[in-house]
Amino acid sequence: MPIEREKRRTSLFVIALAATVVVPAMAASGRLPPLRNGDIVLQDHGGLDGEAIKLATRSSYSHVGLVEIRNGKPMVIEAVGPVRTIPLARWVKNGVGHRVTVKRIKNLDAADAAKVIRRAHAYDGRPYDWFFTDGRDAIYCSELVHAAYSEGAGIEVGVVQEVKDLDLSDEAVKALIASRWKAHPFCQSPETSTFETCFPRLLNQTLVSPAAIASDPRLETVYSSFGQ
């Protein structure tokens, strides 16, 4: 009997110890709450371009997409060249550290959310806009989200900024500009064929960044594994 009691005490201790280990592990597993059409997901997509975007916008985010619930499963519409739709789980795995933040427009109704999704799909297949211009022949990630909301539901998500409003002081940002300015549409005329003549035009270019969308006060944070 004493041996049996000792075995029971040992078993109870093992069960209690397991509980203290399993619960934090489940909390750290990053399980997302139920998502909705029109939710906005943000991540760090990595790469030199992503690093430059984060530095210029003083943000942890370099990529953003739109959630679409398709047959009960969460998908993400994203502009990566071309605009495409992939499973959310795959999208999360594509990010650095598999970290993700989910934002949601406050009080967005289902009808407007459906309009946003339809408008986003109007850009399916469009190539990526490496120069972040205003046209829609090519489109970048945050531009897709901004356009889907503004053109689909009349909701302006994120603040449109000028390039000169960003932080261009870091060497990674300077290197990105230096590698692309010659091919930029703004730099193709004889009057803007040198860096000195084209750079002022680049500074006045408007764009919307993942950081500008993330900081929009009309959005509430549904989930984030980025921490503070």
Describe what is shown at a glance:
This protein has about 230 residues and is α+β, with helices and mostly antiparallel strands.
Question: Could you walk me through the main structural features you see in this protein, from its secondary elements to its overall organization?
Answer:
- This protein is an alpha+beta fold and 228 residues long.
- It has a domain of 136 residues: endopeptidase domain like (from Nostoc punctiforme) (endopeptidase fold (from Nostoc punctiforme)), CATH 3.90.1720.10.
- Helix content is 40%, strand content 17%.
- The protein contains 8 helices and 8 strands, in the order αβαβββαβααβααβαβ.
- A 6-stranded antiparallel β-sheet has the order 4-3-2-1-5-8. Strands 6-7 form a two-stranded antiparallel ribbon.
- α2 crosses α6 and α4 packs across α5.
- The chain is globular.
Total of helices: 8
Q: Residue share in helices?
A: 40-55%
> In angstroms, what is the radius of gyration?
23 Å
Q: What is the approximate shape?
A: globular
The CATH superfamily name of one domain is endopeptidase domain like (from Nostoc punctiforme)
Beta content comes to 15-25%
Distance between the termini: 54 Å
Classification by helices and strands: alpha+beta
Order of strands, widest sheet? 4-3-2-1-5-8
Residue runs with pLDDT of under 50 for 5 or more positions: 1-29
Biggest β-sheet strands, sense, barrel: 6 strands, antiparallel
